[in-house]
Amino acid sequence: MVLAHGFPDTSAVWDGVARRLAERFHVVRYDLRGFGGSEAPRDVDGYAVGWLVEDLAAVVEAVGGPVHLVGHDWGSTQGWVAVAERPDLFRSFVSISGPDLGHVGSWVRRNRWRPVKVAGVVRRSWYILGFLVPVAPELVWRVPAVRRMLHAGRRELVNGLGLYRANVGRRAGSARTSGKGATAGPKRVSVPVHQVELTADPYVVREHLEAAEPWVEQLTRSTVHAGHWAVRTHPEQVARHIEDAIDGRHGRRLVVVTGAGSGGGAVGRTLADGGAQVVGADVADRAAAQAFADDVSERYGVPEVVVANVGPHVGADWREAVDAKLWGVANVVRAFAPLMVERAAGGHFVVTARRDGTARHAHATTKTALRMLIRCLKGELRPHGITVSLIFPDGGTVTEDVVRAVNARRRGYP
Question: Per its UniProt record, what Gene3D superfamilies does this chain match (predicted)?
Fold first, then answer.
């Protein structure tokens, strides 16, 4: 496996990810030209993407490829060109926060009649205009506080400007169309590609990722609730997503349905018919809920969606009503929420509670308590990209309401 870093990092940014992956793979990292221990080209044109691809190909050939490629930022941007032009060198490609420049250009042209949408994406790259201005950014890089904020050395910051000046704007034309470093427009990618979406990334958003869709034959995507430098701040989670991508575990979303004997079975079957991998069970208490969560995590992974389905309580005992309708939900959430938070991939809890035929006072009390519980959970889990929905379906619409809530979240962001 080869890991390619971006601006303004060195190969050291992969330290945490590499340690985790090295338990299974032979991991190779290298410094891009002008970064870390690598020599810098003599002029700006030496940073053209075509030259970066030549360097990457040389590394892969020295390793004895083909390899699994993982790229972040400019390491990913060059990776797109590499897997398109030299598919023989790569088994798979994991792209993290680094779109193909040609894909983005094509996306902008396809959406030229939607200026508001295009402007919303383009404004994310405001900083690039500053990088293209002569001298000014070099002066900014002299400020120690700026370098500390970016976790970067002045050499990497100064040399890294060449990546933008050689590949963005007017100068990029000559750099890409002359010499060995030349590259053509975007090409179809036959290598399996997985995109890791960083939901708190201020620079790369969903549209940047979607720009690749017309160009990739095999494309999957997953999310990590983290910022642009997730490879440094969330190495365990990033490494796990890389492994899952290589193992092909991102093709179907995992949905857990509890209360399978109280109407949850129909919910599970409908979601499974829609392509989800569904695991269902009835859990009676906190210990059972925790054991179920541990078993699901070990056998299938951490779910994207957990549906806590609470059926109608037909008895008159208040304790039974509270245990079933309130503590049953709380136990399921307490069992799965830590797993979802630790995975940092976001997620969705859907809680359903149907109206009782009897025990009206108990129903009203648990309904009010559930509303407050869900309100608190929303506040606690929102920072982790996990959403919470509460549904009180009327009549026989529980399945339709739950599926609608699950799919609405699926189409949304994150």
Answer: alpha/beta hydrolase (3.40.50.1820), NAD(P)-binding Rossmann-like Domain (3.40.50.720)
